[in-house]
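To: structure desk
From: M.T.
Subject: fold request, one chain
Message: Could you run this one when you get a chance? Sequence is below, nothing fancy, just the single chain.
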Amino acid sequence: MELIVGKYAGMCEGVNYAVKKAKEIVKENKKIYCLGELVHNSQVISELEKDGMITVQDIEEIPNDSKVIFRTHGVPKEIYEKANKKGLEIYDLTCGNVRAIHMKVEKEKIKSFIIIVGNASHPEVIGIKGFAGANSYVIEDADEILDAYIEYEKTKMEYVYVVGQTTFSSKKFDTIANELKENFAETIVIVDKTICSATDKRQDETREISKKVTSTVIIGGKNSSNTQKLLEIAKENCKKVYFAQTQKDLKEIDFANEEKVGIMAGASTPKEVVDDIIEFFNKIS
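Reply: Done. Structure tokens follow.
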């Protein structure tokens, strides 16, 4: 059996920094809260919680004058305001790429109707929309463009400014952006492709690897958007695609007759998890 492991498999620099920083913060503080999952990886969260971090889903669950970590996906602007009113000390671990989008949409919302291409229920998109304000709309598929246009017409805004969830499918973003330009033909549409370079690299590499192998294994958290995109891409090119959070998820699968197995991991996946799965395949090859 030949293993082809993605060069970019595993944590991106932004996630790696956030996890290391969070570990330092948790060690320095006896009691600290995290608003939402720091990253979409259960192993990382479990390790931090063992050291004392308390994960909550609502800022109202955090006692006044406490300390809080803001997740890598970012939070809406109103959460910063609520945190200040509650006297919370904030450790902001919002990814730099996401923070840049917050700044862009907050500036552009003065003159533009903002369209966010992404998953409306994803925490990153919720945060971006919070900074984009009322004159904004989230679309995930091209068939939602008409709904976006109806909302745009109500605003009488001069421009349309398009951004994307950093972990969205690069190929799908391009398709939607082109259709937006066609459907908003009489409007100036400014497309800012805010897909993270780490996302692009992993998607491109997954596409190439999945074309060369008989089976593909995608490693990551079940709630990880970027991991789900890698799964979709792999399935386009490979008949046998498996998802694994840990080595345990692969133990019931028979890989004995596989000629080539491709391995790729999402941007929130720890190196140890990837190494563990590589070791699993080395033992059976």
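Reply (cont.): The mean pLDDT is 96. Let me know if you need anything else for the meeting.
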